[in-house]
## 1
Amino acid sequence: MTGPRMPDVLPEGTAKREAVRHMFDAIAPRYDLVNRVMTFGLDTRWRRRTIATLGLSPASVVVDLAAGTGDLCRGLVAAGHIAVGVDLSFGMLAAARTSSPLVQADALALPMPDGAVDGATCGFALRNLVDLAACFAELARVVRPGGRIGLLEVAEPTSPLLRRGHAVYFGKVVPSLGGLLSDGPFRAGAGGAAYRYLPRSVAYLPPPGELVAMLRRTGFADASRTPLSGGISQLLVATRDH
């Protein structure tokens, strides 16, 4: 079996939601391995920075959107917080390596009351959401006034030289390497399709300035963006308005 494949044309709406869910179900077993290899371990450093930048008091309750296999949940717990993971993909949650409570749910409709959490994180999933503005509005709903959010996402370097190298690596090497590590050397399956989609999915992201503006319009007036590792990743940090 090769599993479901991402369509050649980037999907929208409900079709995107279902395609993304099936894709992550398929690549869950080796997702962590592929991440470590593809980023040379930088993803662990980026997650640590995200948690530290929250600046929350110990024992704060933090919801991690698109929690996947629990990397950010584990980091939050190690930092003394109480983490709750939410992911649309049951396959990712089934492969999770965390003792934190996990819930299968859409980030656009979080199963928690208004102001229920002290903070929120999200690692590399904004571009996979059907409606980014709706996600930010949902974060504004569930994060208490004065609470903090830290959202990690891929980005494109501003330096022309770095941008060219990044385009080759992210657009050519990552799909081949991701497919090989996910599917094995002797078959082309869902992993190869997924890692061909992921570089193209950057097209879903608004420009950096618009991302910050969206957060500010939604209830996070102090939202800011920090490029990481030469601009190949970005960290959005904000405080929920009082």
Note: The longest helix spans residues 160-183.
## 2
Amino acid sequence: MSAQTPPPATPPPASTAPTPAAAVPALSADEIVQKYLAAIGGKEAISQVKSVYTESSVQVMGNEAPSTTTIVDGVGYKSETDFNGARIVSCYNDKGGWTVNPMMGAADPTPMPDDQYNEGKSNIYVGGGLYDYAGKGAKVELLPTDPAVKTYKLKLTSKENVDSTYVIDATTYLVKSVTTKGKMQDQDVDITTTFSDYRKTDVGYLLPYAIDLDLGGQFSLSIAVKKVELNKTIDPATFQMPKPETKPEAQPAAKSGSN
């Protein structure tokens, strides 16, 4: 009998199973908030910022509109946009809010409804709604997310009982988006603001230079920040609603002729 060499063993097929994604660290809601604050510069850097003034370009409906935003920490927020010659203003202070929007039939300053004011009141604070949230009477709750997405989701509930959902990147701990409830043409919609292109300012505080706004899929706009000034001196009166201009009453025409 002749010896036979056994055939070489067939190597097992390479595994096609996907490599499991790295687990997102299990953190509490408050731990995520603290990491977010550290990511945007830390509490010390944020506390140095008393005011923020930005100049931006707004892309809306295929048109470009110049816009400015002014924030004095805890005092007020004011956004002004010049759209096709119409000046649109949205303003909040620590007591109320007002708007000017000729395109919506409000050419004069008009007080905001309470629900609209409560939804945007957190804009008056540098650092956003998550900064010192407990001191403002708010609370945060960790919401479930898909681990493969590598984000955290927090629900912030203000003392006025207004909910905002924050999506935070699990790697950078920067806010990717914030979703709140609002109205569009008298319909309740989700308003989602997406932030990107974060840049560091001179004091170490990070700000997003690209902001996209989506109003329930019915309307959207994009904001590109062009200029930022920190700690600029700003008169608090700029956040107070001006009184409508009073037009002089027409004088009756003089009658001609003699008695």
Note: Confidence is low (pLDDT under 50) at residues 1-9, 14-20.
